[in-house]
Task: structure prediction
Amino acid sequence: RRRLVQRFHRNLLDVANPPEPTQEELVAFINADPASFESIPRLSYVQLYVDSDAEGEPPERALQLLSQARDSVDPDAVLTLGDPLPLQREFSDATPVDLAKRFGDDFTDALSKAPSATWSGPYQSALGWHVVWLHDYQSAQVIFDEATLAKAREQLQMHRKESMVRSALDTLRQ
Result:
């Protein structure tokens, strides 16, 4: 009996043809669950690095590096300061997931709250301490473009098909 219901379910899904959603329905569907349609946050920044195994408070060198960087008129002029970094100094459009893999969650969380267009920190990572110039932080947001509307259309159509199939199966059971 269960197999028969599964077969009916699959066959009904194949033939279910709900009406095409309107633009207003798509927008309402997206607004009902915006987290499913948000873009991924992105960060662009440059960093100065101080190698340190010390836990807790930032070492004096990291604080001095922050002071030197803030005193500089040109952010690019200080890029030679600090210790060599095992990774690149500059990241463009990096996602929090990528940064967390390289530097750890605490660093990524701190960086997402850092002020833009100024030197800030020092922030501790799994590698050491970082003084950061955040060029750009694009927070997660819903962008009503064609790709988002297409994704919403697909999900809404599937939701409607499932609803039609459940209704048909309920009718057959009676």
In short: The CA atoms of residues 49 and 130 lie 5 Å apart. The chain is about 45% helix and 20% strand.
